[in-house]
Amino acid sequence: MLYNTFSNFLKNKYGGKVWKISIDAGFTCPNRDGYKGFGGCTYCNVKSFSNINEKDISKQVSDRIKFLEKRKIKNFIVYFQSYSNTYGPIDMIKRKIEASLVDERIVAIYVGTRPDCIDEDKIKYFKELSEKIDVVLEYGLQSIHNTTLEIINRGSTFEEFDFALKLTKSYGLPVCAHIIFGLPGENRDMMFETVKYLADNKIDFIKFHHLHVVKGTKMHKEFLNGDIKLLSENEYIDILANSISMLPNETVIARVVGDAPKDLLVAPHWPENKSEFLNKLNNYMIQNNLYQGKFINENNN
């Protein structure tokens, strides 16, 4: 096996197919509502926030499970995906998380958020919850370089991610990091430095994304002005394959390429087909003798 895929991880952990149910719990973002800034990250399409209560959350999950039952899916992960799902008072977070636990076949909760929306009280709650159900915290890192984070108006720093990562892992909770390749001003070495940091800190899960330009963003205007240069598919595969080879064998590769809604996507228009992309990645890794853990193993010899 070239790398530790998410599907293999789920099969080994839960003994069969597990379906991830993505929900919108109505959280906002401190980089949009004025607490840290307005407008959000330059690559992010700003939409109005939904006023979603606990009953809405329970219904989202239960309706999706009813649909998936027809496909004979037996286990489910609830994924709090939209925006920053730990942004707010701890009591509200608890209510929204626990409102999603509507079925005994839910085996895990995955919570997507920003690292600057985490503190010890919230981690203590997730640790307590993990005694009953698996919990994974997903933090958007994007890059370890603060100069890059400033360019994309991230509104948070590498140091905040580092704090959140170490705090979360100190309580024995697994972390998934999101990173983006091809951000403005970054070269290959800078991208590899981000991956090396995560490898050195034994990240549990990682999601790789390539930079998208979508409508309604500041980056869209920059792209039209010729200020944004995007990676080609071949360039991305080369960086991705070498990055995977830098990671410990235990790290789960939860995603190798991102996507965006076609009605919002400006560029790039690859991959046209994810199966074809995976074949290209696998072939590239085989041809170049690359595989997860290779560079770690070579350094230890």
UniProtKB/TrEMBL annotation:
InterPro entries: ELP3, Elp3/MiaA/NifB-like_rSAM, Radical_SAM_C, rSAM, rSAM_horseshoe, rSAM_sf, YhcC-like
Matching Pfam families: Radical_SAM, Radical_SAM_C
Cross-referenced SUPFAM superfamilies: Radical SAM enzymes
Keywords attached to this entry: 4Fe-4S, Iron, Iron-sulfur, Metal-binding, S-adenosyl-L-methionine
Residues in Radical SAM core domain copies: 13-250
Highest taxon of the lineage: Bacteria
The keyword S-adenosyl-L-methionine is annotated on this UniProt entry: yes
Descriptive protein name: Radical SAM core domain-containing protein
Gene source species: Deferribacter desulfuricans (strain DSM 14783 / JCM 11476 / NBRC 101012 / SSM1)
